[in-house]
Backbone:
């Protein structure tokens, strides 16, 4: 029986699998070589469990700062000048080093945005990092 392709004018749809097999063999060799390296143990020194309780001091009471519509600042209900704010915050940071109090900042709806920016800048400059914004 003879097969003839004289009547076919379309492209041949045969896939050459030789390059595919070559690539697969190279990948197989790479995985065989690298697998023993991955299973090698990595030395770690983990901390040991201790039965000693951790002494955590109680957090200091939070500082409530309020800015009203007239841009008057109050510290726990006591009026304070904006110029004195950073000094007082630095004093609190020095007194409670390592265990800073939380700043709870609230503003009136009609307060100027610049006043809040000054409060946040003073808090950042004094090292306060526990800040809560309240409404």
Residues:
């Amino acid at each position: 029986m003879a097969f003839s392709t004289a009547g076919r004018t379309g492209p041949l749809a045969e896939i050459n699998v030789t390059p595919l097999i070559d690539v697969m063999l190279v990948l197989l060799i790479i995985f065989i070589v690298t697998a023993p390296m991955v299973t090698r143990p990595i030395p770690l020194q983990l901390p040991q469990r201790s039965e000693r309780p951790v002494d955590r001091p109680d957090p200091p009471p939070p500082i409530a700062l309020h800015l009203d519509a007239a841009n008057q600042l109050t510290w726990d209900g006591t009026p304070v000048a904006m110029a004195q704010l950073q000094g007082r915050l630095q004093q609190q940071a020095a007194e409670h080093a390592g265990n800073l109090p939380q700043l709870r900042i609230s503003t009136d709806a009609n307060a100027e945005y610049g006043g809040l920016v000054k409060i946040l800048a003073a808090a950042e400059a004094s090292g306060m990092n526990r800040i809560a914004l309240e409404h």
